[in-house]
Amino acid sequence: MIDELLARLQAAYPHDFARIREGLTGKRTVSLRVNPLKTTVDDVRAAFAQHGIRCETRSFYADALVLPDVREDAVKALPVYEKGEIYLQNLSSMLPPLALAPAAGENILDMTAAPGGKTTQLYALSQGKALITACERDTGRYERLRYNLAKQGATRVNALKTDAAALDDFLSFDKILLDAPCTGSGTVENGNIRFSQAYLEKCVRMQRRLLQKAFTMLKRNGLLVYSTCSVLPEEDEEAVRFAQQLGAVPVPVPSFADVPRLPSPDGTLCVCPDGTYEGFFLAAFTKRP
Ligand code: SAM
Q: Which of 137, 143, 167, 206 to mutate to test the pocket of ligand 1 (most atoms within 8 A of CB)?
């Protein structure tokens, strides 16, 4: 089924297709986020050095580390992992919380939160001082979210097991992250994916429903970040057009240095999958006063 996906991507990105195919059919390097609520980057680097593990940094985020020479299992066996001092997370997946830039006292909604990589990052970025509500509809994934919140010390997140599209319209938030359910076309590794037209259509329907709800609950002058781990235009730039039809006003996402890119509408970011980055898409919006 990778063939059907690759054919679509070739049509969507004729000039970048070779890079995309390489990124989706190869292996990807381990990366992680240091949890500043529990430790420091220097201490984590020292812990890795003791085990002979080499780390690289990235300029767009001091808490991100890339480990070019190890497998995830080796990292999971270390005390820094067990103690919640790190969170295994792809670099691309760290970008939406950075774009949302949570601050102390802000009322923030993470609509589709499990397993909690971005919720715990939002919490850490605000030093635990933002008022975060995190929704997850799936029971098993909700339990995983709660486990990760506890492990990462994100103690004051309000976790709800609910369909975010069914939240009360009277709720309103300063900032909303919609890290939407998607086909995962950007996260494919070694060519492994189950992709079909029917699944794509189902994802698009869920994304539109959640986007509409997000825009309803966004405060005037608030910030909505929409992201997917897909590089298919139906889930990305077409979602931007849909949001604009709702009245959402695009806001440029930050220019993250050295992130590999694919063509995307002005102000948005489409990350090209490669040996380090998963394919990802980010767009940001506000609501007129
Ligand atoms: N943001 C998460 C993270 O960084 O760890 C990943 C989220 S994943 C892309 C999408 C999640 O949305 C899945 O866990 C899925 O079960 C959940 N989901 C799908 N539809 C939902 C809905 N209507 N309301 C709440 N959660 C939903």
A: 137
